[in-house]
Amino acid sequence: MSKIAVVPGSFDPITMGHLDIIKRASTIFDEVKVVVLNNSSKNPLFTVEERMGLISEVTESIPNVDVDTFSGLLIDYSVEVKANAIIRGLRAVSDFEYEMQITSMNRFLNENIETLFMISNNQYSFLSSSIVKEVAKYGGRITGLVPPAVEEALKSKYK
C-alpha cells in the first residue's frame, strides 16, 4: 500500500521554502500531492492554472510529486486521494497556533489521516509568498527566494 501525502497551500507563488518542504516530503512518502487551494475569498496574483503550471515546472525533477487543485475541505480531498498524511510547513512558533486549530478540526472530521509538521529550513524561516510578492512588486531582489521560473513569472506580472 502506497503512502500518500498531501501538501496543501495557496502557493501564490511557490517559494524555495515551499519547495524545500515538498522535496523533503518526497523522500518520506511514495507519492506527494501538492494541492493548490482554490480560495475565492483571496485575491491571488496568479491564477490557479498559473500556480499549478509553476509548481509542475519546478517539481518536474521529483518523480513522485503530482500537482492538483481543490476547493472545499482539505480532509475530503485527502480521503478522495487515499492520503495517509497532510504535511504542513512551520516557519515560526507563530504559525503553530493556527496550524494546531486546523489540524484539530481535520482530526475531528477524520481521525484516520495524520497531519505532520515540518519545520522550515532556517534559511527560509522568514519567507512567505506575500513578502516575496511585495519585494518583487517594487523591483527588489528575489533571487534565491523563489525558483528561477517563478522569479521570471513575477517580473512579468509586475512589468
UniProtKB/TrEMBL annotation:
Pfam families assigned to the protein according to its UniProt record, in alphabetical order: CTP_transf_like
Molecular-function GO terms, alphabetical: pantetheine-phosphate adenylyltransferase activity
Domain named Cytidyltransferase-like: residues: 7-134
Catalytic reactions on record: (R)-4'-phosphopantetheine + ATP + H(+) = 3'-dephospho-CoA + diphosphate
Pathway: Cofactor biosynthesis; coenzyme A biosynthesis; CoA from (R)-pantothenate: step 4/5
Domain of life: Bacteria
Cofactor: Mg(2+)
Main location: cytoplasm
Residues where ATP binds: S10, F11, H18, G89, L90, R91, E99, Y124, S125, F126, L127, S128, S129, S130
Protein function: Reversibly transfers an adenylyl group from ATP to 4'-phosphopantetheine, yielding dephospho-CoA (dPCoA) and pyrophosphate.
Protein name: Phosphopantetheine adenylyltransferase
Originating organism: Planococcus chinensis
